[in-house]
Structures are given as structure tokens and as C-alpha cells.
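Example record

One chain of 138 residues, shown exactly as stored in the release files.
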Amino acid sequence: MGDGEYVAARMRLIVFVMIMVAMAGGVTHVIFWPSPPPPQSWADGTYDNPCCAPLILHGGIITAEGRTTRYRVERGKRGYLIDVPAGIGVRQGRVVFEGTFVFNQFNRNSELEPAVHEAKALHISGLGDDLDYVFAKR
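Predicted C-alpha cells for this chain:
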């Protein structure tokens, strides 16, 4: 094999390797790239639990008993959830915006059926009693 043929073969190999790396990157991008969370309006609605006044979620604002704070709809391991940076929980029959529970799951009243298409219920943790308060969407 002459020098010219050797250089041409080496260039073809380099181009082939570059194409394969680019294709592998594209496949990885498609397989592992997370889809964006739903819009904030996905969670909009009124949620009820006998323990407390209703929770109203609308456009990134959550309201309970006249008090409000912000939230974001995010994707979690078991479906969508809301991220409430101020924290949220139930204490003595009232929803309070405090504590360390910032991530709250949406699901269809069962962890076996996570919410990925529509919000059916929102789970809020009890502060002090460690109970799971399920607020069902009206």
C-alpha cells in the first residue's frame, strides 16, 4: 500500500469513527434527554381533604385559607409533583406553608398509578403526625 492509499484509508476510518460517535451521541440524546415538565396549568384546580380548607392551585400559585405561595410542576420518580420552595404540610387541621416538605407527589390515590396525564390527587405530609393527607381534585 502506498502513502497516498494509506492516508486515504486512514481518512475514511477517521470520518467513519466521527460519524459513529455523532450517531451514538444523537441516540443517547434521544434516549436519555428528559422531556420537559408539563405547564403550570397542568396542576390547576381545587383539591379537597376533610382535614382542612381546600387547596387551590392556579398558574404557579397555591392558596390555602387565604395564604399563598409559589410552586412549580416538576417531574419526579413516580410521576409529576409540585415543588413548593417555602415547604408545605398539614398541622393541626390546617395547611401551612413551612417545613422541609418541598416536593409533593400527584397521583391517582395510589403510588401504583402515578400521575403522568392528569392530576387526580395531591399528597401533603403531616407535620408532627407523619400522616399522608390526600387532597382529591374536584
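Notes: The first strand starts at residue 45 and ends at 48.
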